[in-house]
Amino acid sequence: MTHAPIRVGIIGVHPDRGWASTAHVPALKDLPQFRLSVVSHSRMETARTSAEKFGFEHAVSSTEELVNHAGVDLVVVTVRVPEHLQLVTAALEAGKSVFSEWPLGMNLRDAETMNSLAAEKGVSTMVGLQTRANPTVRHMRKLIQQGYLGEVLSASIIGSGITWGEELEEAFRYTLDPSKGASMLHVPFAHTIDALLFALDENFLSVSGALVSRHPTIRMMESKEVVPLNVADQIAFTGTLTSGGVVTSHFRGGLSRATNFHVEINGSRGDLLLTSPVGYVGLGGFKLMGAQADETLQPIFVPEDFGAGENVLTGNVRKLYELFASDMTSCTRQSPAFGDAVNLHRLINAVEQSSGVSRKV
Questions:
Q1: Which of 49, 169, 247, 339 makes a 20 to 30 Å CA pair with 348?
Q2: What's the angle, vertex CA 317, arms to CA 316 and CA 321, rounded to 5?
Q3: With 0-12 CB in 10 A as exposed, 13-18 as middle and 19+ as buried, what is 205?
Q4: pTM (2 decimals)?
Q5: 154-166: pLDDT as tens digits
Q6: Which whole-number Å values give the CA distances from 351 to 17, 117, 139, 299, in the listed order?
């Protein structure tokens, strides 16, 4: 049975920059299950330019026009986090399915509000937890399901935020406001923890965290202005999994001259090690190694059918869209939805509230 392509409307596409134009549009253009239907931008001229450049059928100048357009089945929201609640709500009220980038909201309350509205409207949702679509992470999940590790005993993570170090681009100044929900805790740390939980197919029973700012200021890259750094640039995290395994993690702002990304999972039968020269799981560049019994660590190669070798910017997003299309046509549940986002927001909220004291998730 053939199905009509899912008609996509993307809010706020700029022709020359932005996550929508660099990742979402290339991924969608490569998938016959989708059709680029409507693009919006507050400036009509920009919307028309984006439509012409990327092949959208229609250009509009407002969110209201896009979400109510008869040619839109799926609304994609890739703008800054503070705008998510308003835009996602508008799409849901119009009865449209929604793909929102992570973080879903600025806080747990916003995420729960959007998830409840989506359930009330009975529409499909997806959230941009792209690390679940990464070929290496998906292969790790398969190995663990096949018993490579045996019983999971513990996992240790070292990560770097890349941002929130010495300098910051002006476009990301808003991430210095903790109320905006786009700090190192909410983005690189959250993506990495979500990838680990996906690979392990587990959840946390309890978590604790210490959030510390060691750099009182940060320099804006373009203007060289020095401004206060009001979000944590050091995250110390401990969690207990439902299986009883223990997870520890240390994330720090900027980049290290030593280790920037290291995930080690220890089990009763084997161990897995995932490393990368860049700061966190969303950026790829992975090297996966493992060992069982008396073996020494050796490389583990990801099979081609997992999508290894694809451009990391578009490959993970492309896989998410593939999973979503399959869910829509086959009534499966493979792509991360708003409910998954709420669970991750709940974990982050527990870390924010813990002050080093263990909190149930």
A1: 169
A2: 120
A3: middle
A4: 0.94
A5: 999 999 999 999 9
A6: 33, 26, 29, 34
